[in-house]
């Protein structure tokens, strides 16, 4: 097959492929900035809403109670960022006096948010030990200390849970900054 001229089909096809590849590379380089709003990572100013029922979370979370599963929500468009399971967070309240400095800094009056995805194998974290006040992954028994920035206590997990810094605004829990670390597993 011979080469087509500049205005021919083959040239347009190459341009289309190059444009698509450029967009893909740009999307990777910008951390998914071209993602759909429901897939985008939590952004400062997002509200936290309950996974069950979708109600906005307020600071009336009980101290030492099991974590509440939540999604971030863009308040401008009321878009719940549930298009990626990596956006799900666990919200809990602990006595602020028991938090280390780094954890206290990212809390809102003792209210903390951590990724609900275990960095070991990507399982959803659902466990809570009330007596030890620690977060547990049910898949491989990794344990995390929410009072010490989600550090690993034991288990096969390679790193702490990513925290989501919070603040209180207009009586609601709001994202203050992006996740403190990478969410989910890291491929070797």
Concise description?
The protein has about 190 residues and is of the alpha+beta class.
Low-pLDDT stretches are: 1-12, 16-32
The CATH homologous superfamily of the largest domain is called Rieske [2Fe-2S] iron-sulphur domain
Number of helices: 2
**Termini gap:** 43 Å
CATH first level of the largest domain: which class?
Mainly Beta
Helix vs. strand class: alpha+beta
Shape: globular
The total strand number stands at: 11
Order of helices and strands: HEEEEHEEEEEEE
Number of domains as seen in the coordinates: 2
Mean pLDDT: 86
Give the helix level as a range of percent.
10-25%
As a percent range, the share of strand residues is 15-25%
**Main pleated-sheet profile:** 5 strands, antiparallel
Question: Any guess at the CATH architecture of the largest domain?
Answer: 3-layer Sandwich
CATH topology of the largest domain: Rieske Iron-sulfur Protein
Describe this structure in words.
- The chain has 188 residues and is an alpha+beta fold.
- It folds into two domains: 1-34; 47-175, Rieske [2Fe-2S] iron-sulphur domain (Rieske Iron-sulfur Protein), CATH 2.102.10.10.
- The protein contains two helices and eleven strands; from the N terminus they run αββββαβββββββ.
- The chain has helices at 9-29, 101-106; strands at 47-50, 68-74, 79-80, 89-93, 111-115, 127-129, 134-136, 143-145, 151-154, 166-169, 172-175.
- Strands 1, 2, 3, 4 and 5 form a five-stranded antiparallel β-sheet that branches.
- Strand 7 and strand 8 form a beta hairpin.
